[in-house]
Amino acid sequence: MAFLFQKFQEAVKILAKSPTFAKDPRSLQFEADINRLFLYTSYNRIGKDADEADVEEIIDLANKASLADQQKQVQENIHSQIKDLCTLMDEILLPAKKTEERFESAAQIDKDQPRSGLRFALGRTGSSPSNHPGNFSFRVIFSAVIPETKPLKLADVSQGVKDHLGYSLAVRSSEIPHKDAGRGLFLEGEADVGSVIAIYPGVVYSPAYYRFIPGYPRVDAHNSYLITRYDSTVINAQPWGEGNDNREFWDGMNSPQAAKFTEQIAQTGSDRVWKMLSKPLESPRSGTRGEILERRNPMAFAHFANHPPKDVVPNVMVCPYDFPLDEKDMRTYIPNISFGNEEGVRMKRFGSFWFKSGSSVHGVSDIPILKSLVLVSTRAISNEEILLNYRLSNSKRRPSWYTPVDEEEDRRRWG
């Protein structure tokens, strides 16, 4: 198995430098990342029984498959793992009768789902989060009735997940030798390459709603828990904090963290211009879309992962995950909510600002999605701190603790 993984890792390095990738730096880095994620998550999906022929087939598919097909397969691979996690959480938290009802519902949905060509090649089944062309309009209907769950603490749920998956997460003082390292995220147990290690929780903002991110436009001045996807979607994990011991209605505003760190912009000099340009058109609270979420989610800690110190290689990478909102039985375990309405809005960029431009853009799918992020392991991980390459922009002054893992990747990511 070690030999096969070595061969696989060599393929990752070679394919990431392939001249067939797009010439635009940002697109090139995105394609390289998707290619790596395709290899890692597909390798994970075929399992420990994989032989050399299986590995060769994955590598061959990575060479031949289009970017769109690879993206679709990555989504299916990630969704399969997330679905297994949700099923496990049901087993841990729901009374026996409710769990049986969930299984029957999930089995019917899974039977009706179409499968991609690559999925047939990988020889695996499972539900698909893939999207289909068309228009959609979606409205979340909030039910005030919170389902009954077992009276377990977050620590109990975490232990239950570890007993089944072989690993769980813990937040404690980082082992990085820097005074600003603070707390870090640790994996307790063992996880294989291509595993979903953690989910990035919080409030999701499309460019249309950047102006409602607390502290806009200098959103990162007092908030280190922001992350941006390649599609410019921003996730603010600060309101989520460390979760709690309840399943509850959560809108990102009813927590101490939401108000504690909101930046107060000064009323002097050029800051008056910034504040005028960023003045909200409506109350931020009116844009939040609350949901009943499981706050005892033991995987919703991706925002505590630290950047590696000098000469240390990261052990995870970010992966965009588009959760299909028609998977209603899974929704409570996805620790994100969207800010604003679900309908797409055409945006135009002017310098550092995004403005609405013309009419709304209908979605490209008849299945509404919730845009999220997960951390995927790039090698086997065993009882160690989770380290993520932050890829901070080299066009801005970077903090003293930041040492680039790959300066060229940083440049391409923000190119």
Automatic annotation (TrEMBL):
Transmembrane segments: none annotated. Gene3D superfamilies: SET domain (2.170.270.10). InterPro entries: SET_dom_sf, SETD9. This is SET domain-containing protein. It comes from Chenopodium quinoa (Quinoa).
